[in-house]
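Journal club side-thread
Mid-discussion, someone asked how the predicted structure for our own chain would compare to the paper's figures. Pasting it here so we can look after the session.
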Amino acid sequence: MESAHNDFLTQYKAISAKLKKRFLRKPNIAEASAQFAKLAKDLENRECPHYAAFCCLAVARCERSDGNAIFESQNLLHAARLFLEAEQLNHELLCPSYSEHLQAALSAYGDCVKVYLDSQQHALAAALLLEVGQSLKQLGRISQAISYFIRAAELHRSCALDYLNDLKEISDCRIRLGDYDGALTVLTEMQVIAEKRGVKENGERIGAFTSILNNVEISRILLLLLLKPPEFKLRPEHAKLLEQYSDIDRDPVDYIEDDLYLLLQSLMIAVKERDESALLHLERDLWPRLTPLQNDILSKILAQYRDYSVSLPYK
């Protein structure tokens, strides 16, 4: 690695020297760009991703000097992914670090997003922000990921499905962080949008929105049962949802299967009655029907009513 480091520095400095302005002589930017790109490729093949990334950044600077936004963004993105690869390797090997590769990756991603936005390529910018958010989630940096999902959502406001998917990422992150009230607020916004935008002119629901409504409603019910907000703090839309599942005479909603709807009604009643035995049986029946995050919320609800020493055979 030390020889690779020295070799990299020598070649990098030699190419950089060609970019210095000399009297009556313009630097050959295209030649330097090609040489940086070749050095980056060689370093990638030698499994030195962070060194290769520095060369990609140098290529991006050369392309910016020539006003080539397409190649500039391509090399910024390549550099960002190489820095991220180096960070993920350190993370997997549990190597001590100051997350310098991650910071370099985020900086390159940010520069690339700016190029896309300046070029009015908002869809590409949003996709890149989502990529960063997902990478941060994988590294366990959930709170840091939220800001990228929020920025992606702002760019996706005109496209309902993309916007809803971004909001789902935000709500999932908030649940993982234990910000249940914040997650409930985001999920409620999702419910309103899906109800408004997910219906055809003939009144039929659109399939993709039906799936979203199903997932959102289940999560909202579970969060309300976990938070148990007092009546004076209960928002009207939340009170309406609790009434829907508390009243056994109400017709079920059309985007949740009847048997699951009845299980959620039973859960609502069991929580109200503090019926530990019923809650344990309902946990067994609900478990395979819920997402991992929803099951986590359900476990926290049941923890309020039973001793954790009870072990269940199906878990």
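Post-session note: The chain is about 75% helix and 0% strand.
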